[in-house]
Amino acid sequence: MWGGSVAGLLSLWRLHGLDSALRAAWQSGTVFTGISAGSICWHTGGTTDSFGPELRPVIHATFPLRDAALAHAALEAGDHVGKIILTVARPRPN
Predict the structure, then answer these.
(1) Residue 94 resides in a domain
(2) What number of other Cβ atoms are within 10 A of residue 9's Cβ?
(3) DSSP-assigned beta bridge partners for residue 61
(4) Tens digits of per-residue pLDDT, 29-52?
(5) Which band of pLDDT confidence, cut at 50, 70 and 90, is reported for residue 1?
(6) What is the rounded radius of gyration, in angstroms, for the C-alpha atoms of the chain?
(7) pTM for this prediction
(8) Which of 62-68's residues contact partners 24+ apart within 8 Å by CB, and which partners?
(9) Is position 54 within any domain?
(10) Domain that holds residue 12
């Protein structure tokens, strides 16, 4: 459907509402598989170079540690594709 580009595949699916239809099918027990960009879209994370020249993980959202409950709620909602990340502020040097 959109060979090799996770960014392109996800945006195309969202544009046409296919992401919601696929989620409903998955929640009803349909098993999905794919290769390349397709396989990353069926999992909660993976690595891609679709967002630039460097290989990096697919990230859905980033939350500061103080918002861990919001991150947990986002994870439990199950509508994410990619990692949900908690960030921890580095201590300031004295």
Answers:
(1) no
(2) 24
(3) 84
(4) 877 766 665 566 555 556 666 666
(5) very low
(6) 15
(7) 0.46
(8) 62/86, 62/87, 63/87, 64/89, 65/89
(9) yes
(10) 6-87
